[in-house]
């Protein structure tokens, strides 16, 4: 578990005059599950990449447990992308060993069993369905027992039952390992179901326009009426704010919850 302090003045890409992010300031407590919601192009992926030290930031703008990021990851990080990004020429077991080379066969079987893929370690990605490949990517992220887990729309374009199953799996593994989580999504229902807190970003340049704790006791099932009520209250309470934000592309789908 790790705490995170973000205090970004601005983020530009070298090849563009447009500011992508900032000013942006928020903190995440150890073990907290934070959902990041915002329009397309608000800089959500850029922010995850900066936290993972895949993109530069100015000194002191990102801190792990109070210590500034120094160009290397500030702790053990797991990153789950929109696509599973498995190596097609490696078996499931060898894809997992890429992140932890000394993993024993029994440890591989144990994590695969947890994600519902017992006995599949010798298969190649082409033999797995899209949902199964995403399970492997979840297993790969949790295998290292990360202090911080970054997820970038990991369940997008999955059918509803598969996405529901994977959300439950993510919740179980989060409860078991308690990493700090930053979860990017366009789906407000998903954010309410999973997160302790939701941060809404404005359209580019991304700034936090709303920081809302989700005060609904767990477990939270997708068809839980409390989630729908909470969403309606949220939309009513902040309708003016959201209406303003809706003028940017992408947040329409947030308000619609799809
Ligand atoms: N490597 C890059 N070089 C230049 N500009 C980039 C680069 N990567 C992203 N951008 C730009 O930065 C802005 C933010 O992109 P980013 O992918 O972080 O947004 P996002 O909020 O994750 O979007 P989406 O929800 O559509 O995935 C966009 O305008 C994008 O074109």
Structure in words:
This protein is an alpha/beta fold and 258 residues long. The protein folds into 2 domains: 181 residues, P-loop containing nucleotide triphosphate hydrolases (Rossmann fold); 59 residues. Helices cover 35% and strands 19% of the residues. The protein is built from 9 helices and 12 strands. The protein has a 6-stranded mixed β-sheet with strand order 8-9-10-5-11-12, with helices on both faces. α3 packs across α4. The longest helix has 18 residues. The radius of gyration is 18 Å and the shape is globular. The relative contact order is 0.18. The C terminus is likely disordered. Adenosine-5'-triphosphate binds next to α1. The site of adenosine-5'-triphosphate has 13 residues, from α1. Keywords: ATP-binding, Nucleotide-binding, Transport. Belongs to the ABC transporter superfamily.
Give the topology:
Blueprint: E1 4-8, E2 11-12, E3 19-21, E4 24-28, E5 33-37, H1 44-51, E6 62-64, E7 67-68, E8 77-80, H2 92-97, H3 105-114, H4 130-143, E9 148-152, H5 160-177, E10 180-184, H6 188-194, E11 197-201, E12 208-213, H7 225-237, H8 239-246, H9 251-256
Parallel strand pairs: 5-10, 5-11, 8-9, 9-10
Antiparallel strand pairs: 1-4, 1-6, 2-3, 6-7, 11-12
Helix pairs in contact: 3-4, 4-5, 6-7
Bound molecules: adenosine-5'-triphosphate (ATP).
Helix content: 25-40%
Q: Give the second-level CATH assignment, the architecture of the largest domain.
A: 3-Layer(aba) Sandwich
Strand order in the largest sheet: 8-9-10-5-11-12
Biggest β-sheet: count, sense, barrel? 6 strands, mixed
What's the pLDDT, averaged over the residues?
89
Task: Tell me the number of strands.
Answer: 12
Distance between the termini: 31 Å
CATH homology-level superfamily of the largest domain: P-loop containing nucleotide triphosphate hydrolases
Number of helices: 9
What is the top-level CATH class of the largest domain? Alpha Beta
Q: Total domains, how many?
A: 2
Cα-atom Rg, whole angstroms? Answer: 18 Å
CATH topology value of the largest domain: Rossmann fold
Write down the overall geometry. globular
Helix-strand topology string: EEEEEHEEEHHHEHEHEEHHH
Protein name: ABC transporter ATP-binding protein
Keywords: ATP-binding, Nucleotide-binding, Transport
GO molecular function: ATP binding
Domain ABC transporter: 6-228
